Amino acid sequence: MHITQLNRECLLHLFSFLDKNSRKNLGKTCCKLLEVFQDPLLWSLLNFHSPVDLKKDNFLLGPALKHLSICWYSERVKVCNTEDWMKNSFQKDFCKRHENTVSDFLLDVCNRCPNLLSLTLSGCGHVTDDCILQLLKNCPNLKSLKLENCVRITDHTLKAVTLHGASLRILHVDFCRNVTQAGLDIVREKCPSVMLRAERSANMIPDSKPENRLMLEKASRKWLQL
Question: Hey, what's the signal peptide range on this chain (predicted)?
Answer without folding.
Answer: none
